[in-house]
Amino acid sequence: MKSKIFFRLLGLFLLLLALQAAAMEFVFMPLIAGRVLELPPGKSALLFSDEILWSGIIALTVALSLAVWVASRTSLRLERVIGFARKIAEGDLSARLPHTEEEVMSAAEAALNQAVARLEESFAAIEGRRQELAAMLDSMQEAVVAVTSEGQVHWSNAVMQRIAGTQIRAGRPLAHSVRDPELLACVRAALEQREVRSGRASLLSSGRIFEINAIPMASGGALAVLHDVTRLEAAEKSRREFIANVSHELRTPLTSIQGYVETLVEEPRPDRETADEFLGIILKNATRMSRITEDLLALASVEGPDYKLVPKPAMASALVQDAIDSLGGMVVDSGVALESTGAPDTLVLADSDAMNQVFGNLIENALKYGKAGKRIRVGARLLEDEVEFTVKDFGPGISSEHLERIFERFYRVDKARSRESGGTGLGLAIVKHIVQVHGGRVWAESELGRGAGFHFTLPLAQTQPFSGGG
After folding, report:
1. Which residues lie below 8 Å from residue 140, measured CB to CB, with a gap of 6+?
2. Which uninterrupted H or E stretch holds 5?
3. 15-29 pLDDT, tens per residue?
4. Which residue range(s) make up the domain with 47?
5. The pTM is what?
6. Among 55, 195, 248, 411, who pairs with 23 as Cys (CB 3.0-4.6 Å)?
7. Phi, psi dihedrals of residue 375, rounded to the nearest 5°
8. Could you tell me if 94 and 159 lie in one domain?
9. What is the pLDDT of residue 467?
10. Total domain count for the chain?
């Protein structure tokens, strides 16, 4: 390109010399030749100098006009290039320079257009990867927020925006967007101390607990990832409570058995009446321990992932009648009447053995706590897409504050009376899980002094597919 420009300037210089020579040859020399003869000696040299001066002026005028024309064209092209550069600086990567016939400038403009095209492709690829990364982060279950070195929100994914609401947005200080001190402390440590910091946030969203991991970034900012551990915390709490309850339930009969056995061992010759009394108490507590163990195994079975049922279409009326027939012997000696309130001849999908366990636990529970009412009623009714089964007693009833928790493991309304009657506190929990595996619902209703009703539903056989799994 340098050689092309050099030769172009050299051509203009030679053109200037040619113009001057042509002016001298064809304009001034004929004039000079005619006037030299008329001039006295000594004046011809002065004439030559004047004519040469005028020829130079004419040549210079023509050269200046050409220079102005070339400069104006070059200036126009430079202005186009400057305007093109400004558009690129403003982010308009679609801008292009128009093609011209001028070889030198056309080559430069083509090179600029090619460079911008490649830059546009690179930015498009970067934007595509950014959108893919944003979509991936939005699909995460964890909440993610990126913070600049000044503590302002740079970016946050959809989960974080749902948690923090409209408060969190780019450019806003993180401290103005969230109010959890543990999260702010972790991010501050990552920004200032440039180290990974972990913590636990409990004030970010009501009723939820998040595990925080804040890490420094090479740009000077920080990235915080929040993992929702609410369910894990609830499961861990439930596990601790379960272990504590099992330990307590087993320790009570074990302590009683140990005490009476030690008394019998230490007494060399106990009288028959005392021995029979002690052995009866030991048998009663051993039986209670056996029932607790059986219920624990049953609960572990229905809660386990391998719990399977064998569902078959069955009449709702047949399930109710089978429960009354098979469990009637349980109430014969109690003086309580087991009655049927009727049931529809509607097909439901149910495992008969599991349903016997459900009805057995509910009727046994009604017998223990509603015996004073002298009767227990079992029945069913057809709803829109399910059948509702009911076991109702007419005992003292249950206070409303207990109804939401009565299906929890080891939860008792009256602990003293439950232990006296031999209840383990697991029967209703077993009922709940069996019904849920069938795809049904379970709940309790009661009024103090008017007994309690326990209800569960089973889906209709023709409308609800049955998985049979846990």
Report:
1. 157, 159
2. helix 2-23
3. 666 665 665 555 555
4. 2-112
5. 0.53
6. 55
7. -155, 150
8. no
9. 47
10. 4
